[in-house]
UniProtKB/TrEMBL annotation:
Belongs to the glucosamine/galactosamine-6-phosphate isomerase family. 6-phosphogluconolactonase subfamily. It is an enzyme of class 3 (hydrolase). Keywords: Hydrolase. It catalyses: 6-phospho-D-glucono-1,5-lactone + H2O = 6-phospho-D-gluconate + H(+). The gene is LOC107776448. The lineage of its organism: Eukaryota, Viridiplantae, Streptophyta, Embryophyta, Tracheophyta. This is Probable 6-phosphogluconolactonase. NCBIfam families: pgl. It comes from Nicotiana tabacum. Residues 20-250 form the Glucosamine/galactosamine-6-phosphate isomerase domain.
Length: 267
């Protein structure tokens, strides 16, 4: 059984005892968002992260979603990517391809991976160019309060240090406001070279979902979700996810939610 609660600023936090249950509800929610977006705009522009998220999306590849989702209308992007070859074990593209994209009928030309043959700086520049073209043709919508792209859904994971995408605590790119896609060459976690959406782009999305599991992330989830004030020891990138107009939903398992204030899990 899941426990669901709306925090004071309309974020929603959904907590699950079992990963299978989390995965099933996540698939259901993504398919609902896809249906709504296809109905409204004719397309669904979704940006994926890497890490544990992909295996938690597994139920989307199964019935009924394998048949009911309008896969032909999906356009796939990456919120962040490691600057390695597409067949490299660290590639977020490879992870998504093996665990998700190869199992559903998404149109290959709708899959927008990064240019893996150039430097991190150039890959970020190229990726932003691709996104700008697709904003122009309205495959990706545009925010009505900034010039940022407005993805229909951005899916994030969170590391035990509170990092999301490749935005790490106390890193100067957290302050990046001008670029849509930026790069780092000094990631605290390997591989060092990565490209990432910036916070303004993440916060312009229509929907943001953060999926977090495991007790190693409980403290970071508490710092990101609860009102901790000056207790917060580091800048928490996850706490900076504050969609301007969009909806934010956290999907947590019981272990990741174990340090949340005022959230008592009940059967
Ligand atoms: O390095 C990364 O880490 C985060 C979190 O990964 P997880 O395995 O702890 O869920 C991931 O969301 C991001 O895309 C990835 O590049």
């Amino acid at each position: 059984m899941a426990l669901s609660g709306a925090k004071e600023d309309a974020r929603e936090v959904r907590i699950y005892e079992y990963l299978d249950e989390l995965s099933a509800d996540l698939a259901d929610y993504i398919s609902e968002l896809s249906e709504a977006s296809v109905k409204e705009r004719g397309v669904f522009a979704i940006a994926l992260s890497g890490g544990s998220l992909i295996s938690l999306m597994r139920k989307l590849c199964e019935a009924p979603y394998s048949k009911t989702v309008d896969w032909a209308k999906w356009y796939i992007f990456w919120v962040d990517e490691r600057v390695v070859g597409k067949n490299h074990v660290d590639s977020n593209y490879k992870l998504a391809k093996d665990g998700f994209l190869s199992k559903v009928p998404i149109v290959p030309s709708h899959v927008h991976s990064i240019n893996d043959t150039v430097s991190a700086e150039k890959a970020a520049e190229d990726y932003e160019f691709v996104i700008r073209q697709l904003v122009r043709t309205r495959v990706i919508s545009v925010s009505d309060i900034s010039d940022c792209p407005k993805f229909d859904l951005i899916l994030l994971g969170m590391g035990p240090d509170g990092h999301i995408a490749s935005l790490f605590p106390d890193h100067y790119i957290l302050d990046e406001k001008a670029e849509w896609v930026t790069f780092i060459t000094d990631s605290p976690e390997p591989p060092p070279e990565r490209i990432t959406f910036t916070l303004p782009v993440i916060n312009s999305a229509s929907n943001v979902v953060v999926v977090v599991t495991g007790s190693s992330k409980a403290e970071a989830a508490h710092l990101a979700i609860d009102d901790v004030g000056p207790e917060c020891p580091l800048s928490s990138p996850a706490k900076m996810i504050q969609p301007t107009k969009g909806k934010l939903v956290w999907y947590l398992d019981k272990a990741a939610a174990s340090k949340l204030e005022g959230t008592k899990y009940s059967e």
